[in-house]
Specification:
4% strand; 79% helix; single chain; 1 helix; mainly alpha
Length: 149
């Protein structure tokens, strides 16, 4: 055998090995494609019902949101009515109630002073100077600001 024949045999063996590896790769690729096709078919079979259920859920949610929107508008109307009622009641009763409270406070204070004056304190004396009334002297006196005490 000559060197050319040995080289030819080596090239033929190399090509045979290469073709067998390529055939094996093509077989595995075909299996992968079949598995992918089955997977896509199964996903499609499961996705269609899921999408229809999701669509029904979205429709139901829209219905509920419409109900909530109407409830919110009713609550807004009730709130504005309550605010108007509150301001009306405040206007109608606020002024007279303040006057009654002030009158009650004045009466209580007057009764308190009268009761104290009758018990042990003499009525405060007032000095009249040419048509003016001066307040009586304070009890306890003031501290001299310059001294420490």
């Amino acid at each position: 055998m000559s060197g050319g024949e040995v080289a030819g045999i080596l090239v033929a063996v190399f090509w045979a090995i290469l073709v067998s590896f390529l055939a094996l790769a093509l077989v595995r690729l075909a299996q992968t494609l079949k598995a992918a096709t089955r997977l896509v078919a199964e996903v499609t079979d499961q996705a269609v019902p899921l999408l229809s259920e999701a669509s029904a859920t979205v429709r139901e949610a829209n219905t509920q949101l419409a109900r909530v929107d109407s409830i919110a508008s009713d609550v807004e109307e009730v709130t504005s009515n309550a605010s108007a009622l509150s301001s009306t009641v405040s206007t109608a009763f606020g002024g007279p109630l303040v006057k009654v409270a002030a009158f009650g406070y004045g009466v209580r204070r007057a009764i308190g002073r009268k009761g104290r004056a009758e018990e042990d304190e003499p009525a405060p004396t007032r000095n009249v100077v040419i048509g003016k009334t001066l307040p009586s002297a304070r009890r306890g006196g003031r501290r001299n600001r310059g001294s420490k005490g």
